[in-house]
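Issue: ligand-bound run for alpha-D-glucopyranose - logging full I/O for the record.

Environment: standard queue, default settings, no custom constraints.

Inputs:
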Amino acid sequence: MIRKYIYGTPFETEAVTRHIDSETSAPAYGSISTENGFAFTYTMDDDDIIYGLGEANRGINKRGYCYISDCADDPNHTEDKRSLYGAHNFLIVSGKQSFGLFFDYPAKLTFDIGYTRMDTLRVSCENADLTLYVFDGDTPDGIVKQFRSIIGHSYIPPKFAFGFGQSRWGYKTREDFEKVAQGYRQNHIPLDMIYMDIDYMDSYKDFTLSSEFKDFPEFVREMKNQNIRLIPIIDAGVKIEDGYDVYEEGVKNRYFCQREDGSDFVAAVWPGDTHFPDVLNPEARKWFGDKYRFLTEQGIEGFWNDMNEPAIFYSPEGLEEAKEMARRFSETGTGRWDESTSETDGEEAVGLWQLNDKLGSLANSAEDYRRFYHNTGSQRIRHDKVHNLYGFNMTRAAGEAFDRIDPDRRFLMFSRSSYIGMHRYGGIWTGDNQSWWSHLLLNLKMLPSLNMCGFLYIGADLGGFGSDTTRDLLLRFLALGVFTPLMRNHAALGTREQECYQFENTEDFRHVIGVRYRLLPYLYSEYMKAALNDDMYFRPLAFVYPEDEMASRIEDQLMLGSEIMIAPVCEQNGKGRYVYLPEEMKFIKFLPDGTIYEEVLEKGVHYVDIALNEVPLFIRAGRCIPVADAAECVDEISMDTLRMIGYKGAEYVLYDDDGVHKDYDLAKNCRTLKF
Ligand code: GLC
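Outputs:
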């Protein structure tokens, strides 16, 4: 049962695609206040578990902390952070009473989940203008299914996008890319994509190419001949530069976000001063989307959309204020933290801390998000009131354009910032993580939560983006990445080079990534079934074993599809790990010599050895999965080599298609494989 409640005058976010009549009564769960803004309050039972919130910090069970939906360009995902890049306002209360909640609200929304008071769930925001959806259901899985049924099907990428990709901020020249291709091909480490970060552009201008690329279509072809796709980045900000067509067209047609006085808002990002395309305006969205043609016409088949919270390093207004404060500090301040209370020559003194705060908050400041407006065609709205929709609509611009460019073909697209609804147009990567073991675990925990919110094509920067990685961390990250639909190694400028061939014993990387390709027919099949049936690809154990109390406590293992469970090693120097089996399972290890180790383990807790160059998984009792022979790219995976592993006598329904077009007929594309 799905119920819809409208408060005030909500902004139409287009997250929900199905019409539902709204109710006039109060929701059956919790209480609502619309007095000072909006608040939903519910008293949680001791044993209630709260699932959801998609890309968010901390655990699969979100209890015990406060999270804020406020898309943020913050690369330091320490435990205290409340906002990451996405805003996914769906959660499930599972326990004494089980129900789901979706707060369709595009501005800042606070989820206090037992933080202020351990028994109280309070969801609140400043303006009581929102739509609340309430989902009744017996199981969390059933609640997710209902939610997914109203937000539209998840995005499906081309099959090559299930291969492994290498990325790094800093590749500039054709030779840089060729070196990466060579490093992988010569070492026979599988590879399907090389990502192009901002340096491929001319002065970081979207839809341009730097002079390093003389004959770009020929370069794209040369790479494709090696079965490698180039995947360029597109940033939100359009550089202000006379003579640059995207800038000039945007200004002429009023396609950029404007200040209150109607002038185009200026934000400094990578290219220096930029304007933001008003992607909430359908005309501007179409215009910006069509710009992707510049690259698709040269053979490009996929993109990643970045800096679309949108990230702002500073605005001219913010910079002026900071300069003014610095002036006052130099004239009146003494460096004492409490100096601001005194007065010098009639001017209030500025303390060192105040100045530090001002400088530190120049980037992504709430004030800047109040300085510009969107024109949706029917209304003018200040950015902060719809802040969380920017990344969604930038990606939608591209997704809608791809449908015009080639309606039958799939394009690869994923974004950094997102809101529910964007899952129809692209996937996401989880932004700038760090080369930390804790981030490997954090990523694992986000995966099922993201699936609940419709995001299926997901993955982290494997190896870690910021900080220097280590060989063992990269191998363990990859062993999780083997299972994430988006499998990409990406690192920041200035960090240790972390392409797999940079480390000793490259055969270990060949093997671990090779397992991805051996499992790809299964992983692709499970992805497609999840996408077409509005199901989850990753589930918490409790979703599959609702009667098993122990299963609900497990935060570092996941169910994948209907057949397997994964339990990656997330600790340095861990030579294995404890694992909980909610039923008998077959423990599988892909060994570096290409053979597969199998052992039946009883329900219960086990310690299993897992070497750095091994990939473990667990097949559920009575099930089986197909495994192919190793291949170096998706196109070379031979379906003729499929053989079954798991339980003899079991059957598996395999989905497969050409991976290029949109002919997704489940009945036509499925066949039963017997073991
Ligand atoms: C942002 C992105 C990162 C990219 C960098 C340079 O930090 O999150 O992935 O490498 O910008 O474009």
